[in-house]
Amino acid sequence: MIDLKLVQKNPEVLAKALADRQSNLRVEDFLILDGRRRALLAEVESLKNQRNSASAQVAAIKREGGDASHMMEELGALSDRIKALDAQTAEAKAAVEDWLMGVPNIPDASTPVGKDESENPEVLRWGTPRSFDFPIREHWELGTQLGGLDFERATRLAGSRFSLYMGWAARLDRALVNFFLDEHVKHEDYIEVCPPFMVNRATMTGTGQLPKFEEDLFKLTDWGYYLIPTAEVPLTNIHAGEVLDEADLPRAYCAATPCFRSEAGSAGKDTRGLIRLHQFTKVEMVRFAHPDDSFHQLDVMVGHARNLLEKLELPYRVIALCTGDLGFGSAKTYDLEVWLPGQNTYREISSCSNCVDFQARRADIRFKPKGGKSTYAHTLNGSGLPTGRALAAILENGQQKDGSIVLPKVLVPYMDGVEVIEPR
């Protein structure tokens, strides 16, 4: 949630941010709602002052033995009016809060301005895409022919946009999870967490999935739980309603979880393979940072995601998301895109974002500076990494002419010495 005082004092800042984001929201609508709320508050305050004054007069009249019945009637009418206005004020306040809940984060000044993903600037590239002297196949064809991926049975079991890993593919998926977690926990500063895979509405609201993106979520209607779309949701909310010590920052968590997404609005996109599924496994990174340090921490997190791709020997590029492509809760985002030779293009495999105080305001995550008052922490999140897309990239980049797959050297110990997935 953005700062209410910022919108009240500098509405033009939000107006520009919304325009840069290509948003249809109008600051004028907020000013009308907030103006009504303020007017009601002022009227209630005035009436309460009148009531207090009348109460004092009644008390004085009674002390002198006079008749205060007419004043009592006025007091009753004032109290009824105040009660009615209190209800209207609560409704006006809720309307303002509802509007603010639907407002995206204000892009950082360093975020490039652009209308959509076509205007995302490339920051860097790593690795040289391999040249092939044979027809390149896509990962779903390779995985199926090698007996590791069975989309036909997955569809029979659950429906479209599900996967079934068998044998070496299931083992490779597990190897990727273990490799990612080992890097984050043993060589970086993350605390490993095993969080709930279902959360309540307040938790989803804290990270910004609700109320705006309810159609993208899977909900257990009878229970009031939501299946998590990413471990960012429970990890960020670990400190909801808490005040951290300044010395605790930065604080970092990681978790490997299944992720569940309805993929509403994705009809016809990536209908084959592992790129866009209703359920997939992902290792997520979350960091809590001091406001003065959060953009440095974003660079740190991007470095952690890059490290994984480089150790997997997968060519990739980093792009900076422009304002028109920026996620709802983010002030600045870098996407890492891995090279998929079967598609002859780079595809997103990690998104690393600094949400500044946007999520912290919604979830009430604070820290207390030494000798100062508590203030909102900054939250960051990033993929580190999804196993399905990583597996797809490994298959496509490691494919050989005979149909075998050469695995990245770093995964061989996790695969008990297996270096090549051989054709059946």
TrEMBL record:
GO MF assignments: ATP binding; serine-tRNA ligase activity
Per UniProt, which keywords does this protein have?
Aminoacyl-tRNA synthetase, ATP-binding, Coiled coil, Cytoplasm, Ligase, Nucleotide-binding, Protein biosynthesis
Residues that hold L-serine according to the record: T230, A231, E232, R261, E284, N381, S383
Main subcellular location of this protein, as a coarse class: cytoplasm
Q: Name one GO cellular component term.
A: cytoplasm
> Broadest EC class?
ligase
State whether keyword DNA damage applies. no
Q: Where ATP is bound, by residue?
A: R261, S262, E263, E348, I349, S350, S351
Subunit structure of this chain's protein: Homodimer. The tRNA molecule binds across the dimer.
Stretches assigned to the Aminoacyl-transfer RNA synthetases class-II family profile domain: 171-408
- Coiled-coil intervals: 37-64
Task performed by this protein: Catalyzes the attachment of serine to tRNA(Ser). Is also able to aminoacylate tRNA(Sec) with serine, to form the misacylated tRNA L-seryl-tRNA(Sec), which will be further converted into selenocysteinyl-tRNA(Sec).
Which pathway is this protein engaged in? Aminoacyl-tRNA biosynthesis; selenocysteinyl-tRNA(Sec) biosynthesis; L-seryl-tRNA(Sec) from L-serine and tRNA(Sec): step 1/1
Catalytic reaction(s) noted: tRNA(Sec) + L-serine + ATP = L-seryl-tRNA(Sec) + AMP + diphosphate + H(+); tRNA(Ser) + L-serine + ATP = L-seryl-tRNA(Ser) + AMP + diphosphate + H(+)
Which PANTHER family does UniProt cross-reference here?
SERINE--TRNA LIGASE, SERYL-TRNA SYNTHETASE
Q: What is known of its domains?
A: Consists of two distinct domains, a catalytic core and a N-terminal extension that is involved in tRNA binding.
Q: Which family does it belong to?
A: Belongs to the class-II aminoacyl-tRNA synthetase family. Type-1 seryl-tRNA synthetase subfamily.
Under the heading InterPro entries, the entry gives: aa-tRNA-synt_IIb, aa-tRNA-synth_II, aa-tRNA-synth_II/BPL/LPL, Ser-tRNA-ligase_type_1, Ser-tRNA-synth_1_N, SerRS_1_N_sf, SerRS_core, tRNA-bd_arm
- Can the keyword Plastid be found in this entry's annotation? no
Its EC number(s): 6.1.1.11
Question: Taxonomically, which superkingdom?
Answer: Bacteria
Which gene underlies this protein? Answer: serS
Q: Name one GO biological process term.
A: selenocysteine biosynthetic process
This chain's protein is named Serine--tRNA ligase
Pfam families listed in its UniProt record: Seryl_tRNA_N, tRNA-synt_2b
Task: Provide the protein's localization.
Answer: Cytoplasm
